Amino acid sequence: MENFISLLAGLGFWNWLAIALVLMALETIIPGVHFLWFGLAAFIVGLLVAIVTSMGMADAFPFPLQVVVFALLSVATVFGVKKLTGAKPNDHHADINAPGSQFIGRILVVEEAIKNGRGKVRAGDSVWLAEGEDAYIGAKVLVTGVNGTALVVTTETEDE
Q1: Do residues 143 and 103 touch, judged by C-beta distance below 8 A?
Q2: Pairwise CA distance, residues 34 & 77, whole Å
Q3: What's the pLDDT band for 22 if we cut at 50, 70, 90?
Q4: Is the pLDDT of residue 141 over 70?
Q5: Which terminus in the chain has less CB density within 10 A, N or C?
Q6: Is 14 helix (H, G, I), strand (E, B) or coil?
Q7: Using alpha carbons only, what angle is made at residue 41 by residues 58 and 69, rounded to the nearest 5 degrees?
Q8: For residue 160, is pLDDT > 60?
């Protein structure tokens, strides 16, 4: 094991640049797994090793310290990018099994009069079942919820 570590340490910055390229290539094969940010961390460590070596202070940045810096930079790049981009958990499909929920809070027009609590409203190019207070054709209603495949609506008043 010591021979392997001394081999890696002897390669200098080239091993970090090779690791960076491999990780970045993996990102193209397996996208979305953060290999890009680990590759960026390896690239930065490679640059640091190259700078320190060119200054004649290679002993000041031994291989175990390089690994620690790589680990810290990996964590910093992965979480830093998430923080900067405002990345959130994959919740953009949270309402995929709740048809009609995208209309909550919108004002729609009654297509078929709502009588005895049931009617139809137009939402874009579709007509949806509606439940709520009685309303005439052409009336504007506010979608307040969804009940199965029917939109729950309330009538809009003049002062709203």
Answers
A1: yes
A2: 9
A3: very high
A4: yes
A5: N
A6: helix
A7: 50
A8: no
Query: pTM of the full predicted structure?
Result: 0.52
Token pair of 50 as six digits: 């190259």
Whether the Cβ atoms of residue 44 and residue 38 lie closer than 8 Å to each other: no
DSSP string for residues in 16-37? HHHHHHHHHHHHHHSTTSSHHH
Percent of the chain clearing pLDDT 90 (strictly above): 48
Domain ranges within the chain, ordered by starting residue: 2-85, 101-155
Positive or negative: CA dihedral 83, 89, 92, 98: negative
DSSP summary character for residue 90 = S
- Across the range 112-126, mean pLDDT stands at 92
Local structure of 66: helix, strand or coil: helix
To which residue do tokens 């320190």 refer?
Answer: 52
Q: Which residues, including other chains, have CB under 8 Å from residue 120's CB and lie 6 or more apart?
A: 110, 111, 112, 127, 128, 129, 130
Please name the residue ranges forming H helices in 55-135. 63-85
* Domain 101-155 is found in CATH 2.40.50.140: yes
Neighbour-count burial for 75-102, b at 16+ CB within 10 Å, e otherwise: eebbeeeeeeeeeeeeeeeeeeeeebee
The number of residues making up the chain comes to 160
